[in-house]
Structures are given as structure tokens and as C-alpha cells.
Request: fold
Amino acid sequence: MLKTDTPAVASSQWTAVCALADIVPDSGVAALIDGQQIAIFRVGDSDALYAIGNHDPFSEANVLSRGIVGDLGGELVVASPVYKQHFSLNSGICLEDAEVSVPTYAVRLCDGIVQVAL
Amino acid sequence: MNKTKLLVVGNGMVGHKLLEALVAEGAAAQFSITVLCEEPRAAYDRVHLSEFFAGKSAADLSLVQGNFFDDHGIQLHLRDKAVAIDRAAKLVRTAAGAEIPYDKLVLATGSYPFVPPVPGKDRDGCFVYRTIEDLEAMTAWGAKSKIGVVIGGGLLGLECAKALKDMNLQTHVVEFAPRLMTVQVDDGGGRVLRKKIEQLGVTVHTQKNTLEIVDGAGLGVAGRYAMKFADGSQLETDMIVFSAGIRPRDELAPHAGLNRGERGGIVVDDYCRTNDPDIYAIGECALYQGRIYGLVAPGYQMAQVVADQLCGKTESRFSGADMSTKLKLLGVDVASIGDAHAATKGALSYSFVDERKQVYKKLVVDENGKQLLGAVLVGEAEEYGTLLQMLLNGMALPDAPEMLILPLSEGTSRPQFGLDALPAGAQICSCNNVSKGALCKAIDEGCTTLGALKKSTKAATSCGGCGPLVTQILKHELKARGVAVSNAICEHFPYSRQELFHLVKLGQIKTFDELITRHGKGRGCDICKPTAASILASIYNEHVLKPKHAKLQDTNDYYLANLQKNGTYSIIPRVTGGEITPDGLVAIGSIAKKYGLYTKITGGQRIDMFGAQVHELPLIWRELVDAGFESGHAYGKSLRTVKSCVGSTWCRYGVQDSVSMAIEIENRYRGVRSPHKMKLAVSGCTRECAEAQSKDFGVIATEHGWNLYVAGNGGMKPRHADLFATDLDHDTLIKYIDRLMMFYIRTADRLQRTSVWLENLEGGIDYLRKVIVEDSLGIGAELEADMRHLVDTFECEWKKAINDPEVLKRFRTFVNSNEVDPNILFVEERGQIRPASEEERRMRIGNIPVVTESGH
Ligand code: SRM
Ligand SMILES: Cc1cc2nc3c(=O)[nH]c(=O)nc-3n(C[C@H](O)[C@H](O)[C@H](O)COP(=O)(O)OP(=O)(O)OC[C@H]3O[C@@H](n4cnc5c(N)ncnc54)[C@H](O)[C@@H]3O)c2cc1C
Ligand code: SF4
Ligand code: FES
Reply:
């Protein structure tokens, strides 16, 4: 799925990451693209995909892909597995501390393959 | 300014309360306080004295908080007693020869047990029941006895009978009157009480007048003595405890010219003052309007009155106290309220007897049937709180008062007075004199849990009789204040964990998706998902990494390992009961070495290996499983360890094989998931080297079997476990643990250890015992069957995981690369790795290589 609030991306910038089936529904995986760590989430059983930075600004560990996915007040979030702060999957903003956020990335599904653009 | 010299004689429960009250009023510093204490230790909780037999130490029973005496500049003289008062010189002479001057003197000398002048009463093996020393002597003598007799079938006598019973003696109670507990209960109640107590194996002899104690035929084995009764019969015994009433310790009064009652007691007025305005008497030595109050609550009220007087609050007075009591004697609930004997003119009564269940209840009402005058409850006493409040506050009785005591048919409930009808002044906790108003004030100040309320007001912290009412008031007041007493676990479910458990079980719900569709809303979150996963595992025990469950798991459960600060994981294989073979040690050692892991002995008697990355976990586990290890579940809210001591196999003091028992228990409950982690331990004797009393479920060997303790906790708020049952045989022990564990799993809140669970369980340990031991809810068999299912369906989560390619696919650091996380850096310390600090990482100091995926 291409998120509507991200600018269109030139097709050359997309990097294939894995098959959709490699991501357990309602969970995440980490990908390494050009030395950058991206956390990619698959929400629900569908092909709804989200990508944010894998680095947890609170614990300084690269672990956000291993958090539990859910929603809080209607906002899709992942909870950091370390100290449990929640980050919006759409904006990357931390719900507990709006000053803190993680980057978000464009992600799409192409012929069953998950692709991310940095 | 010269401080007023205050001398307090006696540091018993009431004397100590006076000191506490002065401190609480911030007045301790205005006085120079001296306390004379005849006993070798400062004040302790006499009301709970019997718990000494259940393993409580003198320190546990102490009423002295921290360095109370030093902190408040109070001089305490232990082991010294007042022998004379010189009122003219205003000083008190002590047995040690000191002369202590006073401006104000408070006598709090309590009472002594009355021993009838029976020839032979001073023989070895004859005891009274009042101090810790008395109990120590009884224990020592009891160990070499077979039969024990209590003289006196009153409240204390029955409590004492329980103590003898617990010492495994054939126990008899000898009473002069025609029934037990003459003061508190009437004939009908006495009959039911007797039957109940006899069923517990205590022989009751009423209308027996003991004439003499002579040598018995037993020659030091059983029946050392014989007690001869007036009716010609006799009873053989090895020890005798006199519990035939108390007498006030007023021996200082006559010489000092203080007025004494005809049958003893130092006469006091409404201010608890004697005929000398500078001398007060409080507690069991004081005689108020011809009455000695043999209970602690009235004593506490007197202490408060005197503290007030000393602080110049002259309006404070004592006006008599209510003698209603609720007790549990030998496990039988007995309560007596107000005019139990219907002695008031025109009084009418209602009674209800159920001879099968052995319940007796009586209400005494005034001639118009409008006001409650008294009540007796035997066998069941839940109505105590309500009835007492009705009496104390003169509340109107409902139209059909009998409904207050008749058994309830399904679906009906007792007429309750609205809690709003209780005046603010209503005394809810008589032990600690806490009114409804005081509770409400504390609630306003932020006490929104029972624990907080107890801590701040002290309500329900002594005899506990007021506990249910305090809870009701708390709930009611919170509601009235609009504090939503929501027990919803999160925004997705309007239910508590306990309710969710029942919904899942009754609805046969097998997945989170089904649960949230049927009973919740939204997608769920990091609170409800793991909770649901835990509930599903506690009921069905399916593998936590099945696709439908995996997404619910917190990272520890998802990777079956413990997440550390730098994103690596730690691995703890099970070391059942702490027993490990040399080969096992070698295997762990070489695997840890191969993968460069940091090793440490845990606080739970096993070995933790730190610093593994996600992709390494299955590789390491493959080797551990091959070496015979299985998952230690250190990551789960589940059974953790069963700690053991070495026990009778090696230890010269051990009385049972604690290691085998620990291993059996750990193997039985391994993998069982629960609201929070559960820890157990087994010690081979009372020296308790396995620290079982700090565990959720603790087992300690005795000569006759095993003692079971529940709800201990280390951690942030340590709690000593409660003794739950004694001398259990193997099968009963396992049965009780099965039931307890399953009951905890069913009813606890999310992340609630057994300690907090028990403290919040209405009815506490007694209720728990009823449910587990007496099976009062009729769910015993079901709890056992549910546990059996978990035991039978156990499989090692790691063994299963390493053989499931679908699961293994998930153990990758990066889904698209075999690189390792470059941010994970280690440095060496004391010959092992540790995570690089932030500073070190920034400077890229850590460079100890980690095993990459491609390396395998
Ligand atoms: C590894 C170990 C420390 C050690 O090196 O010795 C340890 C490590 C952790 N303990 Fe512990 N506890 C360990 C023994 C204990 C003990 C001692 C014991 O079990 O005899 C206690 C006190 C006893 C008790 O639980 O009553 C203990 C009381 C706690 C608590 C406080 C629990 C409480 O009720 O107050 C926590 C926090 C919690 O669970 O919420 C905790 C939480 C933790 C966590 C999970 C904290 C975390 O989230 O990172 C640690 C991670 C474990 C890991 O990474 O492997 N740990 N922890 C011990 C593992 C024992 C084992 O073999 O499984
Ligand atoms: C086994 C048992 C169970 C009980 N259960 C209950 C119950 O469930 N509910 C209830 O309400 N009550 C119960 N009681 C009664 C309760 O313990 C007493 O009412 C309470 O302890 C009275 O307090 P006190 O300070 O007046 O006397 P005590 O606690 O006896 O204290 C008096 C102290 O003064 C000391 N002393 C005496 N003379 C002198 C002197 N001349 N100089 C120096 N020191 C002196 C004594 O050694 C003693 O330490 C129970 C009592 C016992 C023994
Ligand atoms: S608890 Fe008892 S049996 Fe176990 S090691 Fe200690 S002394 Fe020995
Ligand atoms: S009435 Fe005894 S603790 Fe409250």
C-alpha cells in the first residue's frame, strides 16, 4: 500500500525487501537498506503495510520492528518492546512525548513483494 | 521549659497505643517519657499470639515500628517492673531499685490469667497462655506430650485448644459451665459450636469441676497426669493449659491508695483517671463502670482518651465500649453482638438453625421489632459487619428482620442498609477507631485502593473483622465521587482480566481475533494482546508461536528469550530444582563459549547466557536441546523456578528429600502460564535454606510431611508467605498446589503476583482455605482437571520451535540481509563480554565480533 501522505517516489528508488508472506500478520520485520534499519509492519491479515525507523529513541536499541502492533484512540501504533512507548505508524510521532518521533518511509506491495523507498 | 515527666507502666498493646497516639498528635516532644516494661521485649501483638505456633516469630508479632523509642526520645526499661507508687513524692519504685519521678503516671499493666486454686496446678506441664514466653514453654513441653487439656472453654480457651491441636496432641477442653463461650453465645449457639469443634477432633467436656491434678498412669509417655473432677470422673493428660479467665493487674493500687473494684481492677472515670488526677489507668487493668474490658479495642479507645487528655483536649472521654466480637475459633466463625442473651426487657428473638451445615444464627430485637439489640452467629458470620453497624448506629430494621439471617435462595440478596445511611461518625473499625468519616477523608485524599486505605487509616489492620465493610465503603465512595471504578484492562475491552478469562473459557474462544470481535473493539494493543495470549495459554496450552498467537506476544515470548537493553537476548535453560550434572555444566559452558555469550548464575538457581542476537537463538537452542536442556521459561509470565535446598539426601538436618520434591513440582508445572510469573521453593527442614517463605508457593518439610505456604514475594515489596496448610502428605500437597495455582490463574488481575492477589482477595487466606481445602465453591475437581490438562499437554516451546521451519523463518535480525545489527557492540570486562556503553558505542570502541548468520 502506498501511503497517501508520502510524495510519489520514482520507481528506481524502491527496494524490494521480502515477500508479504514473510511478515506474520499484525507484526513486523526489520530490513537493512543502505545501512539504514527500517521496521516494516503488516497490519491485520491484509496487505496494509507501514514502515518506520527501527531505532528506538528511548532505549537506543534497534528493536521497534519487534513491538506489538495495535491501535490507541484510533491511531495505529507500535509499542516499543523495551520501555513500551507507542509510536504512530502513520506519522512516527511518539504518543507519550510528541517531541520525539521516528522517521516514516514509503512502502508498497508489488506482485507479492514488499518494497520500501528511502 | 521543663518537659512534663510522663511515666507509663506496662508496654503491652494498650500502653504502646498510648505512645503511638501521643506521637500521632505530635505531642511526644512535649513530654519526657519513660516506659517500664516487665517483659523482656517491647510491645507485641497479643491478639495474634497464636500465630506464633504457625511460625510467626517474636519479631513478626512486634508492634514497634523501626526505632520507635529512639526516634521519639522515649526511654524504655525492659525487664523492669514497677513495684510501688509513692504518690506523695510522685515517684515509682522498680524491682531493679530505680526511682522514677513522674508528673503524670499511666498504668497499663494489663491482666494475668486466672488459675483456679486446684491442688497440683503448679506441676511441670501446667501453663497459662498470655506471653511469648508462655508459648515457648508450651512448645517445648508439647513436643514430648501426646495429650493436652485446656481448662476453660471461653474464647481464649478455644484458641488455645487450636494451638494444642496444631502441636498434634489429642486435645480436650474442660469447661465448668454447661456450654462453651458462655459470655458470648447462648445455648443454641453453644450446641452448634460444640458439635463443630468436636468434629475437628477436640473432645469437649462441659460441667466439669476440676478438683485436683494427680500423677497419672502414663509414666511419662502418655497420661503423665490425671485430672480428678467433682463428678467422680477423671481425665489423663500430659499437659494442662489454664484459660479460666483474666484478672486485672491492679497490685500497685492498694498501697498507693488508688481505688479498686470489689473484684479487682483500678477504678477510672470518663477520663480514664483514677482517684488521683495525675494517675490514669487504661486497658485490661482499668475498671470502668464496674466493668473490665477484656478486648483490645476498648483499650485502644482508652489510650486515645488519655493521649487527648495529656495534650489538653479535655473534651475527649471514654463512655464505655461495645463488646461485640467476631472470631474464628478452630476455623469456626463465631460472632456475638450486643445483647446476645436477650437480657433486655421485652426483647424478642429470631433464630435459625441448620443442623446439617451446623449454622446457628440469632437476632435479638426490641419489643416493637424496630431496633436490633443483639445477635449471635455461629458457623457463618458474614452478616457481622452489617448487623454491628445497625446496632451501633440505631438504624431501623427492615420489615422482615428474619431476612437478615435466613439463608439466601438463588438469585436473592440480603436487605442491605444503604451505605449512605451510615452516619459519618459510625465507627467502622473498632480495633483502630476508624469512623466512616475518616475513611471518606482518606479516600478524598487519594486512597483509591484497599491497600492504600488500610495503610493510611489503619482500618482493617488488626482483627480484620471490619475488612468487608471497609471494602464496601471504598467501592461505594469511589462510585459516589464519580471515580469510574473501571476494571477494564484497556480501551479495547470493558472487562477485567478475570472477566476476560471467564468469557474465553465459557465461550470456548480460541483466538484473540474471535475474542475482540465478540467482546471488544478496535485492533487491540500491547496490554490486551499479551493478556489474551496468556489467558489462551492458561486454558488451552497451545504453542505460543502458532501464527494466530504469535502476533500477540510480547517480544520475550515472541523470541522465547529475554530482551536486554541493547536489543540482544538472554537465554536461560531449565535447571530443574537447581540440580545440574557436571555434563550439563560443561555443555552450557561450551555452548556459551562458542557463541561468545556472557554467563551468570541467576538469583533463581540457574545459568543465564546473555548477548545473543535474534538469529542466533535457534542455533544456540539446537545445541542446548541436543545436550538435553529445555526452555526455562524465564521470558514468560509463567512458572519460573522451583528453588530447592539440598535436603535430607545430604544435609544432616534435612527431614525430607527437598530436591526430589522440587524437581517433581517443577516438572509438573513447567510451562504453565499465569497472570504473572510464579516462583516456588522447597526446603528440607525449618532452617529454610530454599527461602520458600518468599515464594508464591513455598513448601517446607516437616517430620510428618510438608507445610505449604502461599503468596510470598521478593521483589519490590517483599511479603512473607502465609502458612496455608500443615503436615500434608505428597498427594494432598500436589492437589492443593494444583487448585491454588489454577484458582490464582482464574481470578488474578493482569500482572498481579500471588502476594497482591491474596491481599486483595475478599476474605483473605481464610476464604482461600475454604475454597481450596473445604471446596466451598465446589470447583475443586474442575481446578484439578484444568491443571491436569496443562500438565498433560506440556511441550518444550524451544524444541517445538527449532523443528518448525515456519517459526524459524522469523528468527532473523534482518528479513533481507545476513548482516548483524552494527549497533550491537561489546567490550570485555572480567574476561567476558558486556554491552558497550553509549559513550563507547559512539566512539566505536566495542569491537568484539558477533556470530553472523552467514557464518553458519
Ligand atoms: C536474570 C535474573 C537476575 C539474575 O541475574 O539473577 C532476573 C532478571 C530479571 N528480572 Fe528478576 N531476575 C532474576 C531473579 C529474580 C528474583 C530472585 C528469585 O527468583 O529467587 C526476584 C525476587 C523474587 C520474586 O520474584 O518474588 C526477582 C524479581 C523481579 C521483579 C519484581 C517482582 C515483584 O513481584 O516485585 C521483576 C519485575 C517484574 O516482574 O515486574 C523482575 C524482572 C526481571 C527482568 C525480566 C527485568 C526485565 O524486564 O528485563 C530481568 C530480565 C531477565 C533476563 O533478562 O533474563 N524480577 N527476580 C534472575 C533470573 C532468575 C531465573 O533463573 O529465572
Ligand atoms: C491469646 C490471646 C488472644 C487474644 N485475642 C483477642 C482477640 O481476638 N480480640 C481482642 O480484642 N482481644 C484479644 N485478646 C486480649 C488482648 O490481647 C488484650 O485485651 C490486650 O492485650 C490488653 O492490652 P493491655 O495493654 O491492657 O495488656 P497487656 O497487653 O497484657 O500488657 C500489659 C503489660 O504490662 C506489663 N506489666 C504488668 N504489670 C507491670 C508492672 N508492674 N511493671 C511493668 N510492667 C508491667 C505486662 O507484663 C504486660 O507486658 C487476646 C489475648 C490473648 C492472651
Ligand atoms: S533447609 Fe534444612 S535440609 Fe535444607 S539445606 Fe537447609 S538445613 Fe539442610
Ligand atoms: S475492627 Fe478489628 S481491624 Fe477493624
